[in-house]
Design brief:
Helices cover 8% and strands 46% of the residues. It is mainly beta and 321 residues long.
């Protein structure tokens, strides 16, 4: 009798504990029942989305474009992993064909923003973001793991100087600067953590990070801030569901909501739509772009200076209209 009572008590307490971990606010309830659609298909694993003027650009065997009628085509013959929309409509690209940060102008021309750190060519470029001073940050996770933390973070500042500003990371992945431009948040995939770095002066390296949030699961990938300073994270894959999701974390590190995505993995996120209150996320299995009208305004990014173009590339975007 005692054993049965104890077992019931454990079950009840466990259920209460699990329930307490699940977000219960208005946003959580709304996202839990929100319709998520497969907005565009892709030829393979997809990442790095950007929404611009009704079109979505993303990375999958090249830089692809989803037009307003949802027709998908290759826009640039690159090997990109991440994109970032600038205030003037240019798109910054982490590209592993030219091993460079590229700037795609609105007229389809492509220029190199950074391709060396000192006299060393850049290695592997994953995801990128920018701050209010005009500095651009990107991750280089190549060869790193939990047992071999050799991943790096780089920055090209507003004067065009390229520096490695952090190292010793276990697969640094998605990153973003908060709306106040005070901190850089980096998803360290192999530790399932989100790290928080105070932003230093433009010529100084990053200091020691703090752990902002422990995501668990298979770790996170890309991320994006909303206008209120909450971080939306591509929660790559959850064993308990066999699918990926988007997890929304407040500035205080509290889980506000989950948005379940009907795909095995979720790689990255961008806000878009006419009111900037829609989510477009890239995925694998099935690959492509998924969409949801979340009715939360995304952070549009910091007004930044023009990128310093080191040289032009003899390539041009296809199918200009």
């Amino acid at each position: 009798m005692f054993w049965k009572s104890w077992a019931v008590w454990v079950i009840v307490c466990s259920a209460s504990f699990l329930s307490a971990q699940e977000p219960t606010g208005e946003l959580a309830q709304r996202l839990a029942t929100l319709e998520v659609t497969h907005y565009a298909e892709a030829p393979g694993y997809s990442e790095g989305p950007t929404w611009r003027n009704g079109e979505v650009f993303f990375c999958s065997g090249g830089l692809l474009r989803v037009e307003k009628d949802r027709k998908v085509s290759k826009y640039l013959d690159l090997n990109p992993a991440g994109t970032f929309l600038r205030e003037n409509g240019d798109i910054l690209i982490c590209d592993n064909k030219y091993h460079a940060i590229l700037n795609l102008a609105a007229d389809g021309t492509v220029g190199v923003v950074a391709e060396k750190a000192g006299d060393q060519p850049l290695n592997s470029l994953n995801d990128l973001t920018a701050d209010a001073k005009g500095s651009i940050y990107w991750t280089d996770p190549a060869g790193s793991s939990a047992d071999k933390p050799i991943g790096n973070i780089y920055r090209v500042n507003s004067a065009g100087q390229v520096d490695k500003i952090a190292t010793g990371l276990a697969f640094p992945n998605g990153l973003d600067v908060d709306p106040s431009s005070q901190n850089l948040f980096v998803v360290e995939s192999q530790t399932q953590k989100i790290l928080k770095y105070p932003l230093p002066e433009e010529t100084k390296p990053l200091g020691t990070p703090t752990t902002f949030f422990e995501l668990g699961g298979a770790g996170g990938d890309g991320c994006a801030f909303d206008a209120e300073g909450n971080l939306w994270v591509a929660d790559f894959h959850r064993k308990e569901t066999g699918k990926g999701r988007i997890t929304v974390v407040s500035s205080a590190g509290k889980v506000l909501a989950h948005l379940n995505i009907p795909s095995k993995v979720v790689s990255n996120i961008t806000f878009g739509g006419a009111d900037n209150d829609e989510i477009f996320c890239t995925t694998g299995e099935p690959p492509g772009v998924f969409h949801a009208k979340v009715r939360v305004k995304g952070f549009r990014g910091h007004p930044v200076r023009e990128a310093r173009i080191q040289r032009k590339l003899e390539i041009r975007a296809a199918q200009q209209h």
